[in-house]
Amino acid sequence: MTIQEYNEHPGISASAIKAGRASMMQMHYAMTTPRDTDAPTPAMRWGSLAHAALLEPARFAASVAVWEGGRKAGKEWAAFADAHPGKEIVTPDELARLEAMQAAARANGDARLFMSRVEAVETPMVWESVHGVGSCKGRPDCVGDRFIGDYKTARDIDPRRLFSQFASLGYAHQLAWYRDGFQTISGTSVTSCWVLAQQSVPPYECGVIEIPATVLDAALGAGVSEGGEDTCVAIARRYRACEACGSYPGRYQGVVQYEPPAWATGGGGDEVNMEGIEQ
User: Which residue in 159, 165, 150, 155 sits closest to 199, CA to CA?
Assistant: First the structure.
């Protein structure tokens, strides 16, 4: 299956599930909008470059061209771009940073263990759900023997900040969806889901985070009979019901009364920071 075929496949994706945590309107947009509609942000571009450099070094080497001419403008720049169609153009400084990130990851024992378990990178998966939600799909960063891995870059990988972002952005839901698809397709159990997190600025510190099976089970929500409205299965079922009636409500139904968050009233808790993770 090509990437284009995967993107056009009508299955519910992990990205759609994460959007569905906000509202069915957001999920419908994720399900029906081509992935290449919006240009990647600088942070997203850098995360993609770091991902390819670390996990697919051969493909990375073949897919980039180094521009040494300074400002990206003028006839010389246009000629260079025309001579390298389809390639990601990087500067010598960017290439040096990516090589430094590779070296830092390889120098870390836990990161080396993570990379040693990788057998395939960004392999599209499609499956029919055993939970009654029809066609599904997913494209994990990497998979191996009973292993699913994800690689994230961020300026700050302090565990407290990173774990808060994981919860806010639904990364347990994402990995739970991948795990469910992998197990459905292969008929074997996934024994570990790991995230390799790396700092995107010097000294490019990195660390490996394991997402416990209990957390993934709770995020998937299979077999939940009451509550569990934020689980993958509940979100997917709600979306299929919206498809049937052709209505996709937003998160605001009527006027909502403001309630100050705990951190703003001295009640404890951390202020949510939604920025930082690049890939």
Answer: 155
Tell me which residue of 140, 240, 34 sits closest to 232, measured CA to CA. 240
User: If 0-12 CB within 10 Å is exposed, 13-18 middle and 19+ buried, where does residue 259 land?
Assistant: exposed
User: Among residues 250, 151, 130, which one has the least CA distance to residue 200?
Assistant: 151
- Provide the domain limits for residue 206: 3-35+109-249
> Pick from 224, 256, 218: which is nearest to 237 by CA?
224
Q: Please indicate, yes or no, if residue 264 is contained in any of the structural domains.
A: no
CATH code for the domain in which residue 231 is found: 3.90.320.10
Q: What is the pTM of this model?
A: 0.86
Q: What is the pLDDT of residues 176-211, one digit of tens each?
A: 999 999 999 999 999 999 999 999 999 999 999 999
Q: Which two tokens stand for residue 244?
A: 């049937």
Q: Quick: pLDDT tens for 11-38.
A: 999 999 999 999 999 999 999 987 765 6
Taking the C-alpha atoms of residue 220 and residue 131, their distance in angstroms, rounded to an integer, is: 10
